[in-house]
Design a protein that fits this description.
about 150 residues, mainly beta, Jelly Rolls, five-stranded mixed sheet, five-stranded antiparallel sheet, 1 helix, about 5% helix, about 45% strand
């Protein structure tokens, strides 16, 4: 069985996969808006994804669009890998919102009984823009807490 360490999100380690959605507001204004990420799109959608504990059925990726995963409730992880090496996973505690780069293999999984993730993605995530693949072999994740 493969073993993976659960990593905490930081900008440097997550950079190959995407961006942590963070802000640095100017509090002297009393109100501030920052555009964190933008892309050309024919439309986008906001969805809510409810996860059950320990279920990560497959990896997926969106070839021509970015996708955010924003924790709403519960405790969850995000499993990511590059387009070139989908079997070479990294696993991060999803305790901050992130935006994945185009083509990044990914999946989210609840560690608590249930978790809810807000997803913002391109309106078109059909089969011409997306791919799925089974986890290699008979993968069982054993997450190590350091």
């Amino acid at each position: 069985m493969a073993e993976y360490s659960l990593e905490t999100l930081n900008a440097c380690d997550f950079a190959p996969f995407g961006t942590i959605i963070e802000h640095n507001f100017d509090t002297s204004k009393g109100r501030d808006f920052q555009r964190v990420i933008s892309a050309n799109s024919t439309g986008w959608t906001i969805g809510i994804l409810e996860l059950a504990k320990n279920i990560a059925p497959y990896l997926e990726r969106h070839l021509y669009s970015q996708e955010s995963h924003e924790p709403v409730s519960g405790t969850s992880i995000i499993i990511v890998s590059t387009p070139e090496a989908p079997e070479d996973f990294r696993i991060f505690l999803l305790d901050k919102p992130v935006c994945l780069k185009e083509g990044i293999w990914h999946q989210v999984m609840a560690l608590s009984e249930k978790a809810v993730i807000k997803v913002v993605e391109n309106l078109d995530v059909s089969s011409k823009n997306s791919e799925t693949r089974e986890f290699p072999g008979n993968l069982k994740l054993k997450v190590l807490f350091e």
